[in-house]
Amino acid sequence: MLTVNSLANATDGMTRVALIAHDETKPDLIDFAREHESQLSEYELVATGTTGKRLQEDVGLEVDRKQSGPLGGDLQIGAEVADDRLDGIVFLRDPLRAQPHEPDISALLRICDVHDTALATNLASATFLIEGLAE
After folding, report:
1. CA 85 to each of CA 13, 15, 132: distance values in angstroms, whole numbers, following the listed order
2. In a domain, 5, yes or no
3. Second label for 62, Cα 20 to 30 Å away, from 29, 43, 68, 102?
4. What is the CATH number of the domain that holds 105?
């Protein structure tokens, strides 16, 4: 059975999900968000700066934008995991061509493991995460 860290309850009961993508995978994340727009619009969304801007402009989702990845947005999202403020993260990374300025998944992976927070790193696991949170 899929278990997901459910904090969403402390304040307003909303499920809170972070969305992050390396430059080469941003189009994939935008397509994913379009395909799951009705479900994502039910969630409180958090994203790194550029990804969040694209989600707002290209998909029309409401997003709490953090700093861009190179400026520490991924660390801000990690802090939300540490504070039990996130139910899950979708981090579409480019495992073959990640650029030095892009967020590193290592710290997020570690903090998610420590706090038992779901972290999806590809489209298949992102679908499971979004569908699992809906249940």
Report:
1. 11, 9, 18
2. no
3. 102
4. 3.40.50.1380
Buried b (16+ CB within 10 A) or exposed e, 11-31: eeeebbbbbbbbeebbebbbe
**Annotated binding site for substrate: which residue ranges?**
22, 26, 48-51, 68-69, 101
Q: pLDDT tens digits for 123-135?
A: 999 999 999 998 7
Residue 115 lies in a domain: yes
Residues in the chain: 135
Q: Is residue 4 part of a domain?
A: no
Task: State the residue range of the domain holding 58.
Answer: 17-134
Assigned domain for 103 exists = yes
**DSSP reduced 3-state for 20:** strand
Grade residue 98 by pLDDT with cuts at 50, 70 and 90.
Answer: low
Residues in binding site: 22, 26, 48-51, 68-69, 101
Report the predicted TM-score, pTM, of the whole model to 2 decimal places.
0.86
The residues carrying an active-site annotation are 74
